[in-house]
Design goal:
The protein is built from six helices and four strands. The chain is of the alpha+beta class. A four-stranded antiparallel beta sheet has the order 2-3-1-4. 12% of the residues are buried.
């Protein structure tokens, strides 16, 4: 689905992706609109699905010990039904924060959180014992977060004008 956006829509999206708690009146001021038209644009962007939600970024590591792991997963077979079975199983695993299907040598990249390495290994053992087609996996333990953002650079937003 391609959506036509104007410069103000892009300004709204750019501000919201960095400042989700901005007051509606301040948002309107920053994009040079009165509050009602700005609110209408915001509601439209939500309705068409460009704004998926709002949330806080919580520093859970300040409250509890956790181990963050990236896991590459390779399946036994590449039939559509095998991909579907694996994906459905992963959706039901609370330890999996993100899962991405990839092109190339590895089928999936998972972002997994566990209280410890031992807990992560029990999670992997559970996956290996389940009938979800997991053939091989590779584990990468996160030692330090350098950058973590979902915000698209403003320089890329210009391509959506037109």
């Amino acid at each position: 689905m391609r959506v036509k956006l104007d410069e103000r829509d892009l300004q709204i999206l750019s501000i919201l992706q960095r400042e989700g708690r901005i007051a509606k009146t301040e948002l309107a001021r920053r994009v040079n609109l009165s509050p009602t038209p700005c609110w209408e644009r915001l509601k439209h962007l939500e309705k068409i699905g460009l704004i998926e939600g709002y949330g806080a970024r919580i520093a859970w590591q300040a409250l509890t010990q956790q181990t963050l792991v990236f896991m590459e997963a390779e399946l036994n077979s590449h039939l559509a039904s095998d991909f579907a079975r694996f994906e459905q199983a992963i959706r039901n695993e609370p330890e999996v924060l993100e899962c991405w299907a990839l092109g190339g040598g590895i089928d999936y990249l998972l972002k997994v959180v566990a209280p410890s390495i031992d807990d992560y290994q029990r999670f992997v053992d559970r996956l290996l014992n389940a009938d979800i087609g997991l053939r091989r996996y590779y584990t990468y333990i996160v030692t330090k977060r350098i950058k973590d953002t979902d915000a698209l650079p403003d320089s890329m937003l210009e391509q959506f004008l037109g």
